[in-house]
Each structure stands twice: as C-alpha cells, then as structure tokens.
Design a protein that fits this description.
The structure holds two protein chains of two kinds.
Chain A (H helix, E strand, L loop, with lengths): L10 E3 L15 E3 L5 H26 L9 H4 L6 H7 L13 E2 L3 E4 L3 H5 L3 H5 L5 E8 L10 E8 L3 H11 L7 E3 L2 E6 L2 E6 L2 E7 L4 H17 L8 H8 L7 E4 L12 E5 L10 E6 L3 H17 L1 E6 L5 E5 L5 E7 L2 E8 L2 H16 L3 H6 L4 H5 L13
Antiparallel strand pairs in A: 1-2, 3-5, 4-5, 5-6, 6-10, 7-8, 8-9, 9-10, 11-12, 12-13, 13-17, 14-15, 15-16, 16-17
Chain B lengths: L1 H8 L9 H37 L22 E2 L17 E5 L3 H11 L3 H4 L5 E6 L15 H13 L4 E5 L6 H8 L1 H7 L3 E3 L6 E5 L8 E5 L8 E11 L3 E3 L20 H11 L4 E10 L12 E10 L2 H12 L9 H8 L12 E5 L2
Parallel strand pairs in B: 1-6, 2-12, 3-4, 3-8, 4-5, 8-10
Antiparallel strand pairs in B: 2-11, 6-7, 8-9, 10-11
Classes of the chains: A alpha+beta, B alpha/beta.
Chain lengths: ~400, ~375
C-alpha cells in the first residue's frame, strides 16, 4: 500500500562495474521506477486545468464577443488624440459633419498604397503624379448599415494645379460642362460633385440622389472651396480662353503620352469640336525652356503625326501637315518662340492652318505675367514615358 | 584517476606483490586498454557521424546541413482546386448562354438559369456551394461598382431550393473588408438569406497551385471558403475598367487572390487570363441589373451607371463576358480586351458569343 510522501523503492548503483561507463565509472545514480501519490494528484490537476483551458478557448471561439463585429469604432473618428487626428486629416477641413451626418474615420494613402483604396483606378492618379489621398465617409445612419445615406469624400493631392485640372477633366464625363470660378473648377453630377482647386482634386460621392444627400454634397463643395487654398488657373488657359475664346471646360492637361505619343508630355489641349459632334479636333500647346528645345519637339510631333498619316502639303508658314490614313483628318505642329503649338484631327488642311495661325498669334499676345509662368513641368519633361499606367488620355 | 580513487578507498598494500597479483594486474590493464580503445573508437565514430550530419553539403546522403535555415522551415502546403474545376457535365440539348431581361430579379435569375438547364443541372442535394460576388469597393450598390445584393439574395435562395447543404459567400476586398461588405449591402444580403459569410482573415489563405498559369502558378488564395466545397458560382457586376477595359465574370476571380496582387496590374490581361485557368466555375452570373459604363472600376457618379435590366448565366465565363461587352457595355464595334484572346488560346472558353447557343427571354 503506497502512502503519500513515501518512496517505495530506490535502486542505486554504487560501483558502476559492468555498466561500460566512459566518463563516470563509479558515481551514484538513482533510477526511479515508482512515483509519489502526490505527483499523481498534481498530474491529474494539471491535466484537468489544461482541458479546462481547451474547453474555454473552444467555447469562446464558438461564442465570440459581439463587440468584435461592431464596426462602429472602426467607422467613426476617434474623438481623442486630436493632434494626431489633425495631422492625419491632411487637407480635410475640420468639422465636416453637419446635419444628420456623422464623420467616419479618415483614411490616408500614399502614391504607393493608393490601390488599397481604389484598386484598378490607382494608375490613373499615379499618371498625374499623385502624392496622397485622404478619404473620409460621412454617414447619416448607423455605422455599417448598408442602406444608410452616406457621402464619401476623397481628396487627391496631385502636387500642382495643372495635375489637378488634368485628373479632374480625365474623370469628367463628355458633355458635362465644368464651372470655373475663383480658382475652382467644378461640376455637379446628380449624387456627386467634383472639384479641382489648387493642387487638389476632390470627389464628393453621395450614396443616392436624396435631397439630404445632394444638399450635403453642395454644402461640402462650398466648404472645400472656402477652406482649400486656390491657385491661378494654369497659364495655358490664358491662351485658350482669353486669346482663342474657348470655354474653360474645353481645356485640359495631359501629363504623359498625349495622343499616344511616348514623347508627348506636359501638354495642354483644348477640344475644338462640340460634344455631340462626330469630329474630334484638338488644339494643343507645350511650353519649353528655350526656342531650340521647342523646335526639336515640334519636329517630333511632325514625325509622330507623319507616322500615322501621309504627307499632305504645308501651311503658308511652311509647316508640314499630315493626313490620317484612316480618319482622313489633318494634323500638324510648329514651334513659335519657346512654345510648341499644334492641331490634331482638323477636318481640312485649311482648318488646320487656320488653327495653327490662331495659336501662334495667341502665343504672341500672351501677357508678360503669363509668359513668365508658362514654364515646362520639371517632372513631365524629365520622364515623359515613366508613368503610363492608366493613361490620362483614355477618357 | 579512477584507479587512484579506488586505491584510496582500500588499505595500502603490504609488502611486494605476488606474481599472481602482477599477472592479475597486467590482465586488468590489458582489459582496461581494450575497453578504452573500444570506447575511443565509439566516441570517435559518433563525433565523425555528427560531423558528417552537420557539415556535409546539403545534397550529400544523410546530411542535415542547413546553412541558410531554409531546410528547417516547415514546407508550405500547396493546395489544388479539383482537376477540371467545379464544372458540371455538358448537356448538349440546352443553351450555353441564358439571358433574361426584366425588372423582377428573382424571376430573371430563374429564367436565365432555366435557359441553361435549370438549377438542378448544377446543384444537387448536399452540395457545399461557394458564391463569389464582387465586393471590391466601399460603395453603395447603386453606384454599380459591386454586385447587386438583390441578385445575391435571389441566387442564394435558388441554390438552397436545389438542396445545397451549405452556401458560402466570400470575397477579398483590399480595402477594409468589413466596410466593403457592409456598405455594398452584400453582408446584409448574405445574412438575411441564410448564407455563411466569409470575410478574409490571414489564416484562411493558402498557397494555391495553378499549373500552366503565367503569374499565379503558386499564389496565396482565399482558401477558407473552398475547404470542402464542391460547387462554385461567380456573380459579378458589369463594369468599365480603367486598366483592362471591362470587369465582368472572369475578372471577378481576382478577388480570391491574396498577397500583393496589385502588382499584376502590370500585365492585367495576362492575370485575367490566368484567373480563367485558375477557377473553372459551376456557372457564372453576369449581373447587368446596373451597368457601370464609365469611370470604372470604382465609379462614383450615378451618371456613370445605367440600368441594364439583364442577367446572363453561363458555364462559359468568356462567352458571358463577350455578350456583356457587346450588348450591355455596348462596345460592339471595339476589339475585345486582350484577356479574351489569351484565355481563348488556352481553350478556356468561347470569346465569340455568337458561336454558342443562346437562349434569351423577357420576364416580368
């Protein structure tokens, strides 16, 4: 009969003789062949405790805390950490929420992780040199409710106003006129509003067309127009709008791959055809650092148009024109001072010549202040083919 | 050493040892030397063996050398989807492409499925069915960037009526999955219809082997919902896409990939063709109740969306997508995106929908 605390038997080896030991020939060794009753009790207790833990983990796994699935916290702004929140807000003005809308959590994305927010569309903004995106959702109903009205605000920092204008126009559907006022270019579109202001392109996307949502979108648009610093419209607007009397809506900026030419970057172009027209005629202008550079670029455009057409005479100024093999339209380009001007898709050689002459005259008439800021974009001229993903002239 | 210690325990010798004692001592010393030699050989052999195991180049027999630690890592299991995918046998007497127009989504779906053989052709009692909607963005369904939740509800009901034992709804949006599922209405649709919702969690991703794929021969895959599943249905909206021009049922499988999948945008047509190879579904539903005809894939304005009033059902993703390209995105005159050609070259479908048998119905 075993009793607690007793050692039933101990086998000891004293001599080590006959064990073939190498290093310890005659040390004492114990070989336990029995155990204490107390040890049995401890073993059983430990086993029960482990089983209890396994059972608890299993039960908790099957009955998770409901708060784990509550997305309210994730969707709402953290009312604390105001200084951190202020830095994470980027250009987002404070106090966006109003009326029945509640501000959600601000998301901040760089050019490298933009795809996390707008996978598949990131390349479009990267082609305009996007620096960052700040996004926030205003929700009218309970967080995570599918049919609650909401407004998504996305603020793209594109570094320069010309890029903002280019991205804005790249997303503006054909036939929708933009409004230009006080450094802002914007339009409403049913449930949404789109704004280019300063270096920022901003989208306000309502979940529906309800009166409350549309009113809130309009309020937000005005708020951002007040709070975001504006900038003078890019210099080319002076040429196309002031000199050639075109609508500001017709003017846009293409950072890279204009007209599908790898060399054609930093291009301002204006649509000369009506939205409902079958024509697709455009005038364009590019600023260069000097006349020599402009002359070389003009020759590249002439060769580019020539590669997709056939020679079709020259203008009075001796500018070669090309006739598109498939469309039958006329294109050409020339250097004037340190600018390159051109036309693409003109219905006749005479019309192409007329537009080229207007552009040259317009350049000559640019005010000194405009000429001073009509400079080439550094990044566009350095790497004209670097960013082709989601080409900006796809739209 | 041991002799001295042993000697110290006994009484000192008295007088000169006898010849017998000397002989015994000599014999003992011989025995000890032999034992020592044996033991030295044993220890030396063990050291040599250990040295071999640890130092011999990795390719040599019995070598355990692991200079860079790679051999010691656990080997990742590479999963495989069933050979031939989740397709059901051909049924020559029924159409390949079922198209239903109307406004009653449930009736449209039933009509489109009936046109290609009925739900009983695809789903049997006890099946475990994975349904893959497109929940890619945190957008309300009305903006057309995600699958219409009403179509999902109708599909779950139809599959349940056919006797499926379990219906799983899964997608892997890159942006906050919880928000995407909530804002798109897909979470509510899945829960209200009794389907089991799978949100992506790291432990549910496994390496998937897709032999013959260009980009995803071995790539992390949202495996959790596919564990034990024997039928797969894709249900995707029809969208303009900035990069691949159109996102429909074939592109929809992109949402099952894990890892840094955005890198595939460098060859968007190649990866979409790989997706057609990766997953051969039981059937697909092209949800054209809304058509995001521009500004895709994210959309934003209701002006970018037009009502399509159409559902397309087929076993052939390419045929369904080609129909969508021509008839629903209304790009009939334009060349198909290149992924159609790449997938067709691998015999993964028919990119000319006019060459398949079409059944078109109008329902209420």
């Amino acid at each position: 009969m075993l009793r607690r605390g007793t050692v039933a038997k101990r086998v000891e080896s004293r001599s080590g003789v006959g064990e073939g030991r190498v290093f310890i020939k005659d040390g004492f060794r114990s070989y336990r062949r029995t155990y204490r009753v107390g040890e049995v009790y401890w073993g059983i207790g430990t086993g029960v405790a482990l089983l209890g833990i396994v059972g608890w983990v299993t039960w908790k796994g099957a009955h998770p805390d409901p708060s784990l699935f509550d997305m309210s916290a994730a969707l709402q702004a953290d009312p604390g950490s105001s200084s951190a929140a202020a830095s994470a807000r980027g250009p987002l003005p404070a106090g966006l929420a109003a009326g029945g809308f509640r501000e959600g959590k601000v998301g901040e994305y760089s050019a490298d992780d933009l795809y996390v927010k707008i996978n598949g569309r990131a390349g479009f903004f990267q082609s305009f040199g996007v620096k960052s995106l700040h996004a926030v959702t205003l929700e009218a109903g309970p967080a995570s409710e599918a049919n609650a009205s909401s407004i998504d605000i996305e603020v793209y920092d594109l570094g320069e106003s010309r890029n903002a204008i280019g991205a804005y126009n790249g997303e503006r559907p054909p036939g929708i006129e933009s409004l230009v006022s006080d450094g802002s270019t914007f339009h409403f579109d049913r449930n949404a509003a789109f704004l280019a202001r300063g270096a920022y392109y901003i989208r306000f996307i309502g979940s529906d067309e309800s009166e409350a949502v549309v009113a809130e979108v309009q309020r937000l648009l005005e708020l951002f127009r007040r709070e975001i610093a504006g900038a003078a419209l890019p210099w080319a607007f002076s040429l196309f709008v002031d000199q050639l009397k075109l609508s500001p809506s017709a003017v846009t900026y293409v950072k890279n791959n204009a007209f599908s030419f790898g060399f054609a970057g930093d291009v301002y172009k204006a649509t000369l055809s009506a939205a409902d027209s079958t024509e697709d005629m455009e005038a364009f202008v590019v600023a260069r650092a000097d006349a020599e550079s402009a002359g070389a670029l003009a020759r590249q455009y002439q060769e580019g148009f020539g590669s997709v057409g056939v020679p079709s005479g020259k203008t009075r100024a001796g500018v070669p024109l090309s006739k598109d093999e498939y469309l039958g339209t006329f294109s050409g380009a020339l250097a004037t001072e340190r600018w390159v001007v051109g036309v693409r898709g003109a219905p006749s050689a005479e019309r192409a010549q007329e537009i080229l002459e207007s552009l040259s005259t317009g350049i000559g008439a640019l005010p000194p202040e405009v000429r001073a800021r009509a400079l080439p974009s550094a990044d566009a001229t350095e790497t004209p083919q670097a960013e082709s993903a989601g080409g900006s002239d796809e739209h | 050493m041991s002799t001295e210690r042993r000697g110290s325990r006994h009484a000192p010798p008295v007088g000169a040892p006898s010849p017998e004692d000397l002989e015994q001592q000599r014999q003992h010393q011989l025995l000890e030397r032999r034992t020592l030699l044996k033991q030295a050989v044993g220890v030396g052999g063990a050291c040599a063996a250990a040295g071999w195991l640890s130092l011999a180049p990795a390719g040599w027999p019995l070598s355990l050398r692991d200079a860079d630690g790679e051999r010691g890592k656990p080997r990742a299991t590479v999963r495989q989807l069933p050979p031939g995918g989740f397709v059901v046998p051909d049924a020559p007497s029924v159409a390949d492409l079922g198209v239903a127009h109307g406004s009653n989504i449930s009736a449209m779906l039933r009509a489109a499925v009936d046109a290609v053989g009925g739900i009983g052709r695809f789903i049997q009692r006890g099946d475990v069915v994975v349904i893959k909607p497109n929940v890619a963005f945190e957008r309300p369904a009305a903006l057309g960037a995600t699958t219409n939740p009403d179509v999902l509800v109708a599909l779950v009901e139809l599959v349940r009526e056919a006797g499926a034992s379990e219906i799983r709804v899964a997608d892997n949006p890159i942006e906050s999955p919880e928000s995407c599922f909530a804002r798109s209405g897909i979470q509510a649709a899945a829960e209200s219809s009794g389907a089991r919702l799978y949100l992506p969690e790291p432990h549910q991703f496994e390496l998937l082997g897709t032999p013959g794929a260009t980009w995803i021969e071995r790539w992390p895959f949202f495996w959790g919902p596919f564990e034990g599943a024997n039928k797969v249905i894709g249900v995707s909206p029809i969208k303009d896409h900035n990069l691949c021009r159109a996102s429909m049922t074939t592109k929809n499988w992109y949402g099952l990939l894990g890892g840094r999948r955005n890198q595939f945008h460098q060859d968007i047509h190649g990866i979409v063709a790989d997706l057609a190879l990766m997953l051969r579904p039981t059937f697909v539903v092209l949800d054209a109740t809304r058509v995001l005809f521009r500004s895709g894939p994210t959309g934003g304005s209701l002006s970018d969306v037009r009502p399509g009033h159409t559902l397309v059902v087929s076993r052939d993703s390419l045929a369904a997508d080609a129909y969508g390209w021509d008839q629903l995105l209304e790009r009939k005159g334009e060349a198909l995106p290149d992924y159609f050609n790449q997938a067709a070259a691998r015999k993964l479908g028919q990119p000319d929908w006019r060459k398949v048998v079409l059944s078109e119905v109008n329902v209420g």
